[in-house]
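Do me a favour: review this protein, sequence plus structure tokens, and tell me how the chain folds. Record follows.
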Amino acid sequence: MTVRQYPDSWQDKAAWAQAKRRASLAKVSPKLVGVPEWNDLPQNSRDLPKDILTPREIELTERYTITELLHLLRTRDVSVEEVTRAFLRRAALAHAAVRTHSLPHVEDCMLMKLDQLSYRTPLGSGYCES
């Protein structure tokens, strides 16, 4: 069993959390370019997606209902990987904008591999392990 060592002072805890946040954001692919540092974030961050995400990511995460997205996935007009990446990047941006220190475990998410499965393959649990 691994025992984690956490810093003692609040300054060390803050530095540790900020480093962890930077490391988590660095794992997002493609990288989020233009995300302000935590101390430079605007008071109103509603426009951050338009400034940082691609037009296609904004389209996928804002334009469609879940039913419409499922139809696009079923007809393979979009890939599972493209939709998953768009939502992961948007989630990472939201985490950065509200100054949280945890992100989804992008490297553990097996959803990216769903496009390789046959339509007849039943989907079960275990596709996004954390």
In short: The chain has a mean pLDDT of 77.
